[in-house]
Amino acid sequence: MLEMRPDCERCGTDLPANAHGAFICSFECTFCAECADAMDERCPNCGGELTDRPTRTGERLKANPAGTKRYFPG
Length: 74
Fold this sequence. Notes:
Blueprint lengths: L21 E3 L5 E3 H6 L12 E2 L5 H6 L11
């Protein structure tokens, strides 16, 4: 199951699990759309492709909440 990280690792923008606009690589490194575009959809950590992260909503989100550990180094 995806960890659903709560923020962009590059700029710190909040990325709620129930909203579109998050991009992830196969290691779940997570970035906002603006940062993903700026990095040409390539993960700076592993070099992998960044793709749209699916959303998690409703009862599924309640039963399986998003992660709370923030990854932005700022």
